[in-house]
Design a protein that fits this description.
Rossmann fold, seven-stranded parallel β-sheet, alpha/beta
Length: about 260
Amino acid sequence: MIEFNEKTVWITGASSGIGKALALKISSLKANIVLSSRNKEELENVAKQCKGEAYILPLDLEKPEAFEKATQSVVKKYGSIDLLINNGGISQRSEASQTSIDVDRKLMEINYFGTIGLTKSVLSIMQKQQKGHIVTISSLSGKFGFFLRSAYAASKFAQLGFFESLRLEEEKNNIDISMVFPGFVNTDISKNALSGTGVQHGVKDQNQQNGISPEKCAQDIIDGIIDNKHEIYTGGKEIWMVKIKRFFPSLFHKIIKKQSGT
């Protein structure tokens, strides 16, 4: 088990949704909070709601040249980075055949290359410390493909392969790796998703509308981090699809093909 008291916790995608909920809850545990996303104004709003000080550090996951400087600024301010929560990312709502290859590349650039780029920057700090914890927010789409999410699922599958490998390699340095697989959470991820042509989808999925709250999701994640779980699941009955796919693949296919992609 780990404690958050006086630990430095860096959260990407912290301006809204799950990232915001995590920031507010973890700040109440007396951690040093670092808030990152592209939207500085929204980060400032989140910081005002946090308990104690929150360090605002705007960051664009499509600009890896900024990662090292950002990492060093956190270390300069707090002396260490104890927990990195990779929550930043973007989704997609379009059939694969109608999705521009530029959209596929953009999702990989943000969700995969952006995430692992920042992780590698922070990793060198944790290796020197000989301790640390890296948490990456994936999705059930990182466990199985789903309608209208080919590029998104691909990026999340790629994350899983990278971080499972990293877990094995960094155990010797006392660096823990956790992957989070949320189901439907009531955030704006579908509204902010890209269409096949790269414009904003702009519509909130009914599945998201009926999902669990970001606060419930955040608490499940925090509980999983405290227990140092390798995989953390949060959501409604949809998370059972992971086990159904594993043990009853034919049944899984019959169920999943009847579901709505939105």
